Amino acid sequence: MRFLVSYLVILLIPVLIGMYAYDKTVSVMDEDAEKANFGFEPEQTHTGHAAGGMEQMATELAVNPKVLQKDNVNLQR
Q1: DSSP secondary structure of the chain
Q2: Weakest mean pLDDT among 9-18, 20-29, 38-47
Q3: What average pLDDT score do residues 15-41 get?
Q4: What is the pLDDT of residues 42-77, one digit of tens each?
Q5: From CA 30, how far away is CA 20, in angstroms rounded?
Q6: Residue 1 Cα distances to 5, 6, 7, 11, 15, angstroms
Q7: Residue 28: its pLDDT value, please?
Q8: At what angle do helices 41-63 and 65-76 cross, to 10 degrees?
Q9: Of the candidates 31, 51, 32, which has an alpha carbon nearest to the alpha carbon of residue 43?
Q10: What is the dihedral of CA 37, 40, 42, 43, to 10 degrees?
Q11: Confidence band (pLDDT; 50, 70, 90) for 27?
Q12: Radius of gyration of the CA atoms of the chain, in A
């Protein structure tokens, strides 16, 4: 029984050190990620506007009678 307790204590020490190191690593990574993403917010907004513009353009092309007429001519050939 004495050996079991001593082995458990010896096993517990590295596990506790590892848990502490993991917690610190995660917090540092979170802080770095927040700092890195802070500069990209305007670019993400710009990308979102560009995607919205492309969607609008695709809709306009899909309902444009000239495009539909040209597409119809190509399909009949």
Answers
A1: -HHHHHHHHHHHHHHHHHHHHHHHHHHHHHHHHHHHHHTTHHHHHHHHHHHHHHHHHHHHHHH-HHHHHHHHHHHH-
A2: 38-47
A3: 87
A4: 655 666 666 777 888 888 878 887 766 765 555 555
A5: 16
A6: 7, 9, 10, 15, 21
A7: 94
A8: 60
A9: 51
A10: -150
A11: very high
A12: 30
With beta carbons less than 8 A apart as the criterion, state whether 67 and 75 touch: no
Q: Scanning the structure block, which residue is given the tokens 């307790």?
A: 5
User: Which residues lie below 8 Å from residue 67, measured CB to CB, with a gap of 6+?
Assistant: 61
User: What pLDDT shows up at residue 26?
Assistant: 95
Here the tokens at position 71 are 């597409």
The residue count for the chain: 77
